[in-house]
Automatic annotation (TrEMBL):
<keyword id="KW-0732">Signal</keyword>
<dbReference type="InterPro" id="IPR035923">
    <property type="entry name" value="TT1751-like_sf"/>
</dbReference>
<dbReference type="Pfam" id="PF03625">
    <property type="entry name" value="DUF302"/>
</dbReference>
<protein>
    <recommendedName>
        <fullName>DUF302 domain-containing protein</fullName>
    </recommendedName>
</protein>
<feature type="signal peptide">
    <location>
        <begin position="1"/>
        <end position="19"/>
    </location>
</feature>
<feature type="domain" description="DUF302">
    <location>
        <begin position="52"/>
        <end position="114"/>
    </location>
</feature>
<dbReference type="InterPro" id="IPR005180">
    <property type="entry name" value="DUF302"/>
</dbReference>
Length: 147
């Protein structure tokens, strides 16, 4: 029984942490909300690397998907220190925000908390850039939510 308990405990420690997904309700449609998010990112001085239209991709494959777009963006002043602390952060950065329409027609902005997203890496949980990333994501999504 002791061996089983140790095995279960080891499995729980080895299991990746479940990241919290922050959801922010939006007043506009997916396109307008994404436009507002992209404008907010530009105004904040961050770089937009990509805007991915998931629904458009599905349509090009002959499939249906509710409106859904992903914005990939970042700021080297925040991302570089994370990658200096642990180069594997480059697998998770730049930041991403998904704007999507749910099954009830409600539009949401969604993003992963940087503290959770980078938490399994060799990054101190109190690294200043984590709070700065979280603050930026909260401000940017709040600005876009009222579009």
């Amino acid at each position: 029984m002791k061996i089983l308990s140790l095995a279960v405990a080891a499995a729980l420690v080895a299991a990746p942490a479940i990241s919290e997904i922050i959801k922010v309700p939006a007043t506009g449609d997916v396109g307008a909300t994404m436009d507002a998010l992209e404008a907010a990112v530009d105004q904040a001085g961050a770089t937009v690397f990509a805007r991915v239209d998931h629904a458009g991709g599905a349509q090009s494959a002959g499939l249906e998907l509710a409106a859904s777009q992903l914005l990939v963006f970042g700021n080297p002043k925040l991302g570089t220190p994370a990658m200096q602390d642990d180069p594997r952060a480059g697998l998770l950065l730049p930041l991403r925000v998904l704007v999507y329409e749910d099954g009830e027609g409600k539009v949401w902005l969604a993003y992963e908390r940087p503290e959770d997203m980078l938490g399994a890496l060799d990054i101190a949980p109190d690294a200043p850039y984590l709070g700065m990333m979280s603050g930026a994501l909260a401000k940017l999504t709040a600005a876009a939510a009222g579009s």
